[in-house]
Amino acid sequence: MVYAATTVYIGIDDLESFGIDARTGRQLSKFSCKYAGTSPAVILGDDAILQSGPLTRVQLRTGKTVWKKEEGYGDVPLIRDRLVAMTQTDLVGRDVASGNIVWH
User: Is residue 88 exposed (0-12), middle (13-18) or buried (19+ Cβ within 10 Å)?
Assistant: First the structure.
């Protein structure tokens, strides 16, 4: 469970992930995320970047996928506006807005 600006992200391993309104406890969204309980999400406002499986940025209030990138895995730290991730052969920096690789 990770607290965002006005929502809470809850990932349950091999089941579903949820966006919960932090004030009311009302479920806002539900989306699939395999192994959600094994890697912590990176929180950006009311969005979460999920690290289990492909790197995926999700709007917690709606469950809508902002972007999804197949390459990149592991615990992905956020440094300013860059995610630092591993690929099969490289260390890469990804732009958090687009998910695109900006350096390697």
Answer: exposed
pLDDT tens per residue across span 17-64:
777 888 888 888 877 766 666 677 788 888 888 877 788 898 888 889
pTM to 2 decimal places:
0.77
How many structural domains are present in the chain? 1
Q: Taking a C-beta distance cutoff of 8 angstroms, is the pair 30, 16 a contact?
A: yes
Instruction: Identify which has the larger pLDDT, 92 or 30.
Output: 92
Domain interval for residue 28: 2-103
- The CATH number covering residue 27 comes to 2.40.128.630
**Among the listed residues 104, 99, 66, 67, the one whose alpha carbon sits nearest the alpha carbon of residue 83:** 99
d(CA 25, CA 56): 24
